[in-house]
Design brief:
Layout: H1 6-23, E1 27-34, E2 39-45, H2 53-70, E3 78-82, H3 93-98, E4 103-112, E5 115-126, E6 129-134, E7 139-143, E8 147-152
Parallel strand pairs: 2-3
Antiparallel strand pairs: 1-2, 4-5, 4-8, 5-6, 6-7
């Protein structure tokens, strides 16, 4: 591996992290590496449930030991292990099924009814399509292939105030 090749580092970290996460009942969600800042971020998820601080700590300890042994990064770096967050990206049919009923924001590769992005409740998936329930009524089926980016929207419970 070329030490300064960020993609090679990411690929190697994925190889190391995937089985370690599985041992903990977790899955590897993503890896980010910023060589200039010496930052390695590993995102873990729990297929059926939430990721807690203890999960992140356990994954961090195991991954840190594996990284020390494999030594894919030839200089000092900082390892951060966390969950994808409340506004996590959606990456395919499984995510849309898992988060059915949740509010999501989708950016489309080509506009629908003149709109390049939509926000609505995920109402299901079928045959490579996702159905969104939009404010103002009605549902809309969209091809998943047309979704360029998608994220969950963090909802604030009614009656609570959001810090500005």
């Amino acid at each position: 591996m070329v030490p300064h090749d960020p993609q090679a580092v990411i690929d190697r970290v994925r190889e190391l992290a995937r089985p370690l996460a599985a041992e903990l009942g977790l899955e590897l969600f993503d890896v980010e590496y910023q060589p200039r800042g010496g930052l390695l971020r590993v995102f873990i998820d729990r297929p059926a449930g939430e990721v807690g601080i203890g999960d992140c700590q356990a994954a961090s300890e195991r991954l840190s030991a594996a990284l020390d042994e494999a030594d894919p990064i030839p200089h000092a770096y900082r390892l951060e292990v966390s969950s994808p967050g409340l506004d996590r990206p959606l990456r395919g049919p499984d995510d849309y099924r898992r988060f059915r009923g949740r509010l999501a924001h989708l950016v489309l590769s080509s506009p629908v009814d003149g709109r390049g992005d939509l926000t609505g409740r995920i109402d299901g998936t079928e045959g490579g399509m996702v159905r969104l329930l939009l404010d103002g009524g009605g549902g809309l089926w969209l091809p998943l292939a047309q979704v360029k980016k998608a994220r969950l929207v963090v909802e604030v419970a009614k009656g609570t105030k959001r810090k500005q």
